[in-house]
Design a protein that fits this description.
about 140 residues, mainly alpha, 5 helices
């Protein structure tokens, strides 16, 4: 497969998962009473596009040149977290950035499980993620 096509596919998946994570995090934050400050839709899309490009480039480099080093994906994910923290410097805490990455990871894992036909795995991941959100939400509501 041509490298540019593969990078574009990774970028599209990363953009969709990151955009969906921002939307779901906003809904979740509203449910638990946390005030998540978002910028305009265009600015959020631009931030998501840039952060997802960093993630996609990291994934493409790792899968192309060192496929056995998938734990190196922590660096592009960390850079994406820093991008979001800088973009929302005064508005977001480290908790919000961490939750965004957790949402993106859960969406990605559920999507991969569904694409490859592992429906039981998708249900288990979804149930574990929902349990995690309920526990975190109960702690945050008590504060």
């Amino acid at each position: 497969m041509h490298a540019v096509i593969q990078l574009a596919e990774y970028w599209a998946v990363a953009f969709v998962t990151l955009g969906l994570a921002v939307v779901l995090l906003n809904i979740y934050s509203g449910l638990i009473g946390n005030d998540l400050e978002l910028l305009t839709a265009g600015k959020e899309a631009a931030i998501a596009a840039f952060a997802s490009l960093v993630e996609a480039t990291g994934l493409w480099l790792i899968t192309s040149y060192v496929p056995s080093a998938m734990r190196a994906m922590i660096f592009p994910v960390f850079v994406a977290a820093v991008i979001y923290k800088i973009a929302h410097f005064q508005d977001w805490s480290r908790y919000d950035v961490f939750m965004l990455l957790i949402f993106q990871a859960a969406i990605t894992f559920i999507g991969i499980s569904l694409v490859y036909g592992h429906f039981q795995s998708a249900i288990v991941i979804l149930a574990a993620f929902a349990f995690f959100l309920v526990v975190i939400g109960s702690f945050l509501k008590d504060l």
